[in-house]
Each structure stands twice: as C-alpha cells, then as structure tokens.
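TICKET: design request
STATUS: open
ATTACHED STRUCTURE:
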C-alpha cells in the first residue's frame, strides 16, 4: 500500500527547473545593476528591471517552498532545498535594496569602486547560473562545482577590497563638508557588499550539497 501511494506522488517536483529559473533572475538583475552603475541608459528603467526580476524571484521562491511541502520525495534534504533557494533569493533582494536606495536618494553618479562591485555581481550571478544546472548530477559534476564555488568565494574577497577602497576614497572626498553624501554612498556600498556576501552564501550551500551527496 505504501509503495502504491508513493508511486502516485510527485517524485522530485520541479526543483531543478525552479533553481535554474531563479538563477536566471539573478543574471538579469545583476546585468541591470551593472548598467545602472555604468550609466548605460536610464537609471529609472534599470531600477524597474531589478524590481521586476526580484518579484519574479519571489514567485519562484514561493513555488519552491510550496513544493517542499507537497512533494513526497525530494532530491535533497528539504532543509537544503529551502536554504539554497533562500540564499539565492537573498542575493536578488540585496540587488533590489541597492537599486531602491539609489532611486530613493536620487543618486546619479557612482564611484569606480561601486562600478567594480557591480561588475563582480554580474560575474557572480553568471557563475551561479553555471553551477546550478550541475546539481542535477552532483557526483559527476563535483569537481566543477568545487571550482565554481571557489570562484564565488574569490569574488566576495575582491568585493571586500573594493568596498574598503571605496569607503576610504569616499571619506576623503566628503570630509566634513558633505556628511549626507557620505551616509548615502556608504549605504550603497553596504548593499553592494551584501550582494557579494549572499553569493558566497550560495557557494557555501552548494558546497554543502556536494559534500553530503557527491
């Protein structure tokens, strides 16, 4: 009876497809973020794109959380599935918060270090988008996943360096004359750093899956 019941239940749901769809929102969001910081097109349009992709990501995340409860057999531990989609969603949430801050304070000029951090976000998103499909066959893809997650960790370290350099330059430029500019731009730097941190979290979750299942 139990075997018959299990045969009727969905086996692995759409988790892999959902992860890949979410990774695509990360790439699209990061691309728009980089264009925003580089001055390529209208800032408002890029902010709107990031907001839209964040909404798409939220929809996917809700589907994953629903399927975790609905599907009888999952490809990984349920907590591993929710943790991975959670940190992926945190990444685009931070992109959204960065864009929202820029729109709120009507910032139109960005330091080179900010542009560099946005560029790193694009690479991190693309590395993530390459890694996620490899989860379908963890054992055979373990070595490549290790390389990709190591790259995400390296990118986070580079982002930390740009963050420190940027804050130092910002402090020197603002001095005691432009305290509001310092506060606003420091907040933008903080969000950019958190984007990199969240991609490192993705790397850690993927590495955990490799260790547990490969």
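STATUS: resolved
RESOLUTION: sequence designed for all positions
ATTACHED SEQUENCE:
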């Amino acid at each position: 009876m139990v075997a018959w019941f299990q045969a009727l239940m969905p086996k692995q749901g759409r988790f892999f497809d959902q992860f890949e769809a979410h990774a695509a929102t990360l790439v699209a969001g990061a691309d728009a973020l980089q264009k925003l910081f580089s001055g390529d097109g209208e800032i408002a349009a890029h902010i709107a794109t990031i907001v839209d992709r964040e909404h798409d990501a939220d929809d996917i995340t809700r589907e994953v959380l629903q399927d975790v409860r609905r599907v009888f057999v999952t490809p990984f531990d349920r907590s591993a599935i929710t943790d991975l989609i959670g940190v992926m969603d945190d990444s685009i949430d931070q992109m959204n918060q960065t864009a929202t801050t820029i729109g709120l304070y009507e910032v139109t000029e960005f330091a080179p270090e900010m542009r560099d951090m946005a560029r790193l976000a694009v690479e991190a998103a693309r590395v993530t988008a390459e890694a996620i499909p490899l989860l379908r066959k963890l054992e055979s893809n373990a070595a490549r996943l290790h390389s990709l997650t190591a790259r995400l960790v390296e990118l986070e370290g580079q982002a930390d360096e740009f963050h420190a350099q940027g804050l130092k330059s910002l402090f020197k430029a603002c001095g005691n004359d432009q305290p509001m500019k310092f506060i606003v731009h420091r907040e933008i730097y903080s969000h950019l750093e958190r984007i990199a941190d969240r991609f490192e979290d993705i790397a850690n979750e993927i590495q955990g899956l490799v260790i547990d299942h490969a």
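CLOSING REMARK: Confidence is low (pLDDT under 50) at residues 1-10. The chain is about 85% helix and 0% strand.
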